[in-house]
Automatic annotation (TrEMBL):
The keyword Transferase applies. The gene is leuA. It is found in: Cytoplasm. This is 2-isopropylmalate synthase. The keyword Cytoplasm applies. Residues 31-306 form the Pyruvate carboxyltransferase domain. Its EC number is 2.3.3.13. Keywords: Amino-acid biosynthesis, Branched-chain amino acid biosynthesis, Cytoplasm, Leucine biosynthesis, Magnesium, Metal-binding, Transferase. It catalyses: 3-methyl-2-oxobutanoate + acetyl-CoA + H2O = (2S)-2-isopropylmalate + CoA + H(+).
Length: 554
C-alpha cells in the first residue's frame, strides 16, 4: 500500500484571507484569451509540431478569434525560431493579433529571442519567467529569495534595455513567477512588484503579470485567494494585466481558472482541448463554452468543433477523449431511455413554445452551436434505450411517426437486438428492425387485390378482397363503416377475427420514396394489441397492408 504520509501540502495561503471572488456568481465578461498551444502545448508533445503544422494551427487560432498567441520559445529550437521568422517575413500576422514569445531570464536566450523578432511590425509580448517556489529555490537553483529575485530583475532589465535601445514601441512585457502555486504569496508579490518597478508600466502600455499554476497544488478556492491577494496588492494595478496560466494536475485547471477570473484576473492563458505538460493546461474551449452556456459572449468561435478536433488530432497526434466537455464524441449522447424521452420531449417543447431560448433537459448547450447534429449525436440506441429515443430516431431520420404503444413495443425489440449483439444500433439498424418486424409484414396472408363500392346511402363501404391464405387464393366480401373496417370484416369471414384498436396514418415528408404510412393495432381474441404497419404510395393500400401485417403477426 503506497504511503500518503510522505506527502505534504506544498502551497501557501496568502497572509490575509481574500473572499471577494466568492461573492460573484458567474463570469460576466470574457477575459483576454491567450493561446499557448504552439508553446506549452507543443513542448508537451511526443513529436513537436513541424513548421507547416504550426502555421496551419496558427491560422486556425486566428480564425477562432484569439488576439494573443504565444507562438513559441524561439531560443529552444530551429523550428520555433523559424516560425517567428516565417510569420514576420511573410506578413502573416493580422494587425489585431499580438504574438507572444517565451524566454528564460538568461542573457543569451533573451538575445536570441530578440533576434527571432527582428523586423516585426505588429504588437509583440516578450514573456520572461523564472521559478520562485520554495522547492525550486532550495533544490534546483540553490539560491535564497534575494538571489532568485535578482534573476527576475536581470531578465526584466535586459528586456527593457534591448527594447528601449532599438525603439521597439510595439513590444510589451510579461513576467511569470514560475511555480507560483508553490511560492509564498508575499514573496511572489515582492518579486512581481520589483519587476514592475523596472518596467514602469503605464495604462497605455501595460505590463502583464502572469500567475502560473505550473503544477496545480491546491483546491481551486485556495488558488482564487492567492490570485485575489495578488490582484489587490500589486503595484501599478491599472497598468497591469493580471494573467493566469493553470495546469491540470489535480484535474481542476478549469475550475482554478474560472475562480481566478472571479478573483480579478484579466487574462487567461491555456490551450485547445487542454493539451500541455503532464495532465495539460487549462482547456480554453471549456472555459469559453462554460461562459457561452451562461449566456455570455466568450468572443471565441467554436461553431465547427468537429473540424477543429480533426485538425488538432492530425497535427498533435493527441486524441480528444470522447467525454471532453463540448468537444468529445459522446458529450451530447443520450443512450438511456428516460434521458432520451426527456430530450425528445424537450426539443419538441422548445420548437412549439420557446425557440429563442435553450432549456432542454440533459443538454447544457444546443449541440448545433458547436457543429453537432441532433439526428446523429444526441439520441443513440443501445440496450439502455427506450421508446422516446426509438420514436425520435425514426421520426428525425426517416419521417416515421409511430403511435406511442407501437414505439414501446419496437423499443423492446431493439433493446433485445442490442443486448444480444452487445452493440450500439445505428438509425439504419433501428429502421431495419422496424421494417423486418412490422412493415408490409409477410406471413400466412398475402394481399392479392381489392376494390370497394359504396353501400347504402354512400355511408358505408363494401370491400371485395382477394387474398391468399397459406397459398390458397380466396375471394371474400365485407361491409363496414370505413374502407379498413370493411376489409377487417371481410377477413373475419375467413376466420381471422380481429378488432381494430388503433389506427393512424401520415404522408411521408422525405427520407423515403413512398408517400404514405399507416399503423394498425388489432386486438386479438385474448385482448392483446398486435401491431402492423403498411407503407405504400397510396394511403388506402398502405392501411390495408398495415392491417394484413398485423394479422400476419397475430
Ligand atoms: C513551466 C514551463 O513550461 S517553463 C518553459 C519550459 N520550456 C522549455 O524549457 C522548452 C525550451 N527549453 C530549451 O530548449 C532549453 O531549456 C533552452 C534552450 C531554453 C536552454 O537550454 P540549456 O541551457 O541547455 O538547458 P537548461 O534549460 O536545462 O538550463 C538550465 C540552466 O538554466 C537555469 N534556468 C532555468 N530556467 C531559468 C530561467 N527561467 N531563468 C534563468 N535561468 C534559468 C537553470 O538554473 C540552469 O542553470 P545552471 O546551468 O546554472 O545549472
Ligand atoms: C512559463 C510558465 C508560464 C509556464 O509555462 C508554467 O508555469 O507552466
Amino acid at each position: 500500500m503506497p504511503n500518503h504520509v510522505k506527502y505534504q501540502r506544498g502551497y501557501f495561503m496568502p497572509p490575509e484571507p481574500c473572499f471577494d471572488w466568492a461573492k460573484k456568481e458567474y463570469i460576466e465578461k470574457a477575459p483576454k484569451w491567450v493561446s499557448v498551444d504552439l508553446r506549452d502545448g507543443n513542448q508537451a508533445l511526443i513529436i513537436p509540431m513541424s513548421l507547416e503544422q504550426k502555421l496551419e494551427y496558427f491560422k486556425k487560432l486566428v480564425e477562432i478569434g484569439f488576439k494573443e498567441i504565444e507562438i513559441g520559445f524561439p531560443a529552444a529550437s530551429e523550428t520555433e525560431f523559424e516560425l517567428a521568422r516565417t510569420l514576420i517575413e511573410n506578413d502573416m500576422i493580422p494587425e489585431d493579433v499580438t504574438i507572444q514569445v517565451l524566454t528564460q531570464a538568461r542573457e543569451h536566450i533573451i538575445k536570441k529571442t530578440f533576434d527571432a523578432l527582428e523586423g516585426c511590425k505588429t504588437p509583440v509580448i516578450i514573456h520572461v519567467y523564472n521559478s520562485t517556489s520554495l522547492a525550486q529555490r532550495e533544490q534546483v537553483f540553490k539560491r535564497d529569495k534575494e538571489q532568485i529575485k535578482e534573476i527576475a530583475l536581470t531578465g526584466a532589465k535586459l528586456l527593457k534595455e534591448l527594447t528601449d535601445e532599438a525603439g521597439h514601441d510595439n513590444y510589451r512585457f510579461e513576467y511569470s513567477p514560475e511555480s507560483f502555486t508553490g511560492t509564498e504569496p508575499e514573496y511572489a508579490l515582492e518579486v512581481c512588484n520589483a519587476v514592475l518597478d523596472v518596467w514602469q508600466p503605464t495604462p497605455d502600455r501595460k505590463a502583464i503579470i502572469n500567475l502560473p499554476a505550473t503544477v496545480e497544488m491546491s483546491l481551486p478556492h485556495v488558488f482564487a485567494q492567492q490570485v485575489e491577494y495578488m490582484s489587490k496588492n500589486l503595484k501599478y494595478r491599472d497598468a497591469v494585466e493580471l494573467s493566469l496560466h493553470c495546469h491540470n494536475d489535480r484535474g481542476t485547471g478549469v475550475a482554478e481558472t474560472e475562480l481566478g477570473i472571479l478573483a480579478g484576473a484579466d487574462r487567461v492563458e491555456g490551450t485547445l482541448f487542454g493539451n500541455g505538460e503532464r495532465t495539460g493546461n487549462t482547456d480554453l474551449i471549456t472555459v469559453a463554452m462554460n461562459m457561452f452556456a451562461h449566456g455570455v459572449d466568450p468572443q471565441l468561435n467554436f461553431a465547427n468543433m468537429p473540424e477543429l478536433v480533426e485538425l488538432y488530432e492530425r497535427v498533435t497526434n493527441m486524441k480528444v477523449e470522447p467525454r471532453r466537455p463540448y468537444a468529445g464524441q459522446l458529450v451530447f449522447a443520450a443512450f438511456s431511455g428516460s434521458h432520451q424521452d426527456a430530450i425528445a420531449k424537450g426539443l419538441k417543447w422548445r420548437e412549439e413554445h420557446d425557440p429563442e431560448h435553450w432549456t432542454t433537459p440533459y443538454l447544457p448547450i444546443d449541440p448545433t452551436d458547436v457543429g453537432r447534429h441532433y439526428e446523429t449525436d444526441v439520441i443513440r440506441i443501445n440496450s439502455q434505450s427506450g421508446k422516446g429515443g426509438i420514436g425520435y430516431i425514426l421520426e428525425q431520420n426517416f419521417g416515421y411517426v409511430l403511435p406511442p404503444k407501437m414505439r414501446e413495443e419496437l423499443s423492446y425489440a431493439s433493446k433485445d437486438v442490442s443486448d444480444h449483439t452487445h452493440a450500439e444500433l445505428s438509425p439504419e439498424e433501428v429502421n431495419r428492425i422496424f421494417h423486418e418486424n412490422y412493415v408490409n409484414h409477410e406471413g400466412r396472408i398475402e394481399l392479392m387485390d381489392f376494390h370497394f363500392t359504396h353501400a347504402e346511402n354512400n355511408k358505408a363501404f363494401k370491400a371485395f378482397v382477394t387474398v391468399k391464405i397459406d397459398g390458397d387464393e380466396q375471394d371474400v366480401i365485407g361491409n363496414g363503416n370505413g374502407r379498413l373496417d370493411s376489409v377487417c370484416n371481410a377477413m373475419e369471414k375467413l376466420g381471422l377475427k380481429a378488432h381494430i384498436a388503433s389506427y393512424s396514418e401520415h404522408a411521408m415528408t422525405g427520407g423515403s420514396d413512398s408517400s404514405a404510412m399507416a399503423y394498425v393495432g388489432v386486438e386479438d381474441p385474448n385482448g392483446k394489441i398486435v401491431w402492423g404497419a403498411g407503407e405504400h404510395h397510396d394511403i388506402i393500400t398502405a392501411s390495408i397492408k398495415g392491417l394484413i401485417s398485423a394479422l400476419n403477426r397475430m
